Amino acid sequence: MKTDPATLEIMRSYYNAIAAGMGHIIERTSFTTFVKESADFATALATPSGEFFVYPKTVGVTIFLGLSLQRAAEACEPLEPGDIIITNEPYSTDGLATHLPDVHVFKPIFVDGELISYAWAFVHCSDVGGLVPSSISPEATDIHQEGLRIPPVKLYKRGQANADVHMFLNANSRAPQLNLGDFNAMVAAVNTAEQRMHTLVNKFGVQAVKDSMQDLMDQGELRARKVIEQIPDGTYSFADYLDDDMVSDTPVRLAVSVVVKDGSITLDFSNCDPQVRTAFNLVTNGKKHSFLFQGLINYIISSDPFIPVNGGITRPISVVAPAGTLVNPVYPAAVGVRHTITMRLYNAVLGALAKAIPNEIPAAGAGQSAIVVMSTPDVLSGSRNMAVVQPMGGGGGGNSDMDGADGIDHASGFLRNTPIESLEQHIEVLVHRYELLENTAGAGLHRGGHAIRLDFEIREEGSIVTARGMERLRFHPWGLAGGQAGALGQVTLNPGRSNERKLPKISVLHPVPGDVVSIQSPGGGGWGSPFKRDPQDVLEEVRAGLLGVQQAENLYGVAVRVQDGVWVMDEALTGQYRDEKNWEVADLWDFGSAREAYEAIWTSEASDSLAQLLQQLPPTQRAIRKQLVHERAKQIYPQQKLSAACIEQLWQDLM
User: Fold this and answer.
1) Claim: this prediction has a pTM higher than 0.85
2) Does the residue 86 lie in any domain?
3) Short-list 592, 598, 594, CA closest to 523
4) Are 309 and 65 in contact (CB under 8 A)?
5) Enclosing domain of residue 623
6) Kind and range of the H or E element at 237?
7) Which of 131, 239, 378, 570 is most deeply packed, by most CB within 10 A?
8) 283 Cβ neighbours under 8 A, 6+ residues apart
9) What is the pLDDT of residues 254-271, one digit of tens each?
């Protein structure tokens, strides 16, 4: 290390202040609820090679750590002072841009003609064209249906706005004025970062700045390896599922084998399902990508709270991601709902680690962040108004030492809720309910987090509602170490009315004025035996209206009754109930009835075998063949446990 520890800590504080300051500029000057309320943006500083050497933990979302600007920067060479690059294109940036509404802006910072750093920001912008307002439709079948693709290009050249690029950006959006406001916020942020980096160079010298960047990266790597070294060496495999791919009822399986050895980790996705025909694909180009292992990153940061948060943390991690799989789709696969894959991979990677270190891993959280967006016509301009109604998370998973967080899953990247007052000011909508939902937390020694219910009324003709990323309506968030699975989510139109009806996952909804859309998110899984939970904590849940009397008795063995108008615990009856309960943990996981029924037929052996056979086909044919095998299996082997030999026979029958 070239920088002494005291000076390095000082430099780290300066860098964090610059990167966080960029975020505050975006937060305070942006135009849209996507950014200033939901906080769907991020900022960072990068080395000349494109690695993020500082990434603030307290501003914006926290899931882009470890990505690289290198490929995008190379596409715009030669770079000059005053240049600002813009892009949203996943395939040509190695997944820096993960879907088209995430627009990235970064500026090279020069000192005496030498490139010393980059200032980077992204925002989720309102609309880049495509099939639906806000651009994201889960049912898109290729990336060209998802909107304008912006390959890396100079938004500013030598400090001057590139008018041609601005013209194309404005012409390909339903809400160009909203986008422009957010783009300008990013430009202000990277320009300010450049000024502050120059101030830092003047204070410490250019060599000290360059050395400290690399030293922070090396320190992040060293401390990450020390955390990984505490995990027993071995290979740990796990799988989790998306409910479906929106075109069939066949589940989408994300399988991973985590190989731990000598302070390094390899994540092998060879048995992962093939890329799907809809928008649930994650572009990585087969390279290491933070969206593949966000759960592992969070584990490292949680284990060492003072670790420098930068790309060095990802250096001990490598991946195997075959082309044509969900985690390495082949162009032009649609990618708009890629964060759904990210959140399920969060569960899958941590599920694998739970086999090695169960006391350090939480149960599954809600596993969704359904960004509910509403669009209404602007009759004066002919464009459309848009706003995030809510980023609908759900309960977090319980831990070995605490309950799961209510209403937010740690896999969500710290998205914030939209205040109702702000929402109703921005768009014609009336919110009826926005509350935590009773009896949705997975029971446990430490329960899962409670789910959320959101009911909102449509007020204007021509309104459109989208809700990307809606999941866990079929497969429960799993409980761990004796904890029980969390509740499923659901969608209802006009609850409590004569025309009430249940809805599937929302892709594009065209409600009429007066309709009420009700969305219930999933609850988090519980951790540990519910019968070991402090009965007083159970009583407080009942008093808070979040746990029913019958549920307290059945799930926790706690008897409560009303005395003098308040809920009290019947200690004698509680003791009797708990004496009768089995306190032992029967299995490490509680997957819920739906997954248990599915895997009673589709065993890991069968699914792994099919995944390997599918890789013999061209990528665009794999999802269709997978569905055919599943349909054939229902005909030939109804309700039968499938083996690798069964899958081989089905495969031959369809050749």
Assistant:
1) yes
2) yes
3) 592
4) yes
5) 602-654
6) strand 234-242
7) 239
8) 90, 91, 95, 98, 328, 329, 333, 335, 338
9) 999 999 999 999 999 999
